[in-house]
């Protein structure tokens, strides 16, 4: 993997296009932004865009393609979202019907692709500052929880926020807030610090998605809005068709993490 | 006006609803956010929302109403955008056809209202920090210029950015950047500092909109993206109907300026 960490986004996307590897993209193209994918028909795109606009913490938009175009012009001009993600999931009427390495067969003139910020960017910033990221230390998936925090509804879309959790030593909690506040385009500052029950989480050791991680004595759980939220919410309306990346298999953008920093 | 400065937003909106005054709202409800209004039919709303999302500096969205609803639920729950702005402009097929104190006669079930951040919020922050705001000192309108900076197009909408200019003493330019960077929801950091020619402005003393202001020796012109941009861009497609506030006659929100601060 270390060689993939040093590759440029464009090279990696070409390798992915050619199916030279089908792997989760964590750690690839160090310093560059990776994005979550959600493709919906134009008929749903307004509600989806408005939902994201009203809920910027769980749904930070990096790019929206023109109707029928698979090119994310702002974050990777020239790229083709039909081929340059290692693995996709296709949902039809809310049911997962295929997991594929390209979506050429599913593409239509009325589809709109959304790229949403992912936590890799702020996790890099936390690690660069010497703060722990437990699920990376433990080599597992980040723990994610369904909360009782209602998202602001938009048209057909409504639902509760999903959050991810990273334990921080008490002395580093403030620093974690400061560091992630610089990155509003990738979930930004935490949504909650401390007692999980306050946001409707019953058992911190039993995440709804991902894996549980160790919380050491003296550590405080810190919760960030999670990019799983928009996909989960969109799925509740059972769109005729919706295509996402497979978990962990993200789109690698040409923009750098630091370009997303607000300051 | 000083008594209006101390009034609560809700009281002022009720007075406006009852036509107790028809005045520009600058200085009213001190500390509270004021917003620009743009109402378009649902058929144009997706492109308008996407244009705003792609151009957040000139088009910072504060709220978007549900289709057919005149209530800006997030910034002023219970308010009615048909009555609670002192003066409106109605454009039909790109032509100004009416200036009215309420828009009940024009309201339709397919209209969507956008409230966009305005510069009053960051100007308060500049003044609070002791920085000059020349057009307020000179009691005139802010100078605005059409630049050669292309906005990112979205569907039917494309055009160039309009900027406003405030001269700053050279020693205060950095501070002006810092202060306004805290407020990305109301145009945020400047888009340009210094030589007007770099962004296509020929004569700084001849603004395209508003009034010219004095630039003292040793002062640097500082340019911010301006909320006139989205209205100007939307007008180029000559929507069947589009309704805006009359210049300076803004919507007074229930949220405070400081609630919009990113940090």
TrEMBL record, chains A, B:
Its EC number is 4.2.1.-. Pfam families: D-Glu_cyclase. It is an enzyme of class 4 (lyase). The keyword Transmembrane helix does not apply. Keywords: Lyase. GO terms for molecular function: lyase activity. Belongs to the D-glutamate cyclase family. PANTHER family: D-GLUTAMATE CYCLASE, MITOCHONDRIAL (PTHR32022). This is Putative hydro-lyase ALO_05073. It comes from Acetonema longum DSM 6540.
């Amino acid at each position: 993997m270390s060689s993939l960490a040093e590759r440029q986004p464009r090279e990696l996307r070409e390798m992915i296009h050619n199916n030279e590897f089908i792997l989760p993209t964590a750690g690839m193209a160090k310093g560059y932004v990776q994005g979550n994918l959600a493709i919906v028909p134009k008929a749903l795109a307004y509600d989806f865009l408005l939902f994201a606009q009203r809920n910027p913490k769980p749904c930070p938009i990096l790019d929206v393609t023109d109707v029928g175009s698979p090119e994310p012009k702002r974050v990777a001009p020239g790229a083709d979202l039909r081929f340059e993600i290692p693995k996709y999931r296709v949902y039809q009427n809310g049911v997962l019907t295929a997991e594929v390495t390209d979506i050429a067969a599913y593409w239509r003139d009325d589809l709109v692709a959304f790229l949403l910020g992912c936590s890799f960017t702020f996790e890099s910033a936390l690690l660069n500052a010497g703060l722990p990221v437990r699920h990376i230390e433990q080599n597992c998936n980040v723990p994610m929880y369904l909360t009782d925090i209602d998202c602001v509804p938009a048209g057909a879309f409504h639902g509760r926020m999903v959050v991810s959790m990273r334990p921080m030593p008490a002395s580093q909690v403030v620093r974690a807030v400061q560091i992630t506040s610089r990155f509003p385009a990738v979930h930004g500052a935490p949504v909650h610090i401390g007692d999980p029950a306050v946001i409707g989480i019953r058992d911190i050791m039993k995440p709804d998605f991902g894996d549980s991680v160790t919380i050491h004595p003296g550590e405080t759980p810190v919760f960030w809005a999670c990019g799983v939220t928009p996909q989960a919410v969109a799925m509740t309306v059972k769109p005729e068709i919706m295509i996402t990346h497979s978990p962990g298999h993200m789109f690698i953008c040409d923009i750098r993490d630091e370009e997303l920093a607000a300051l």
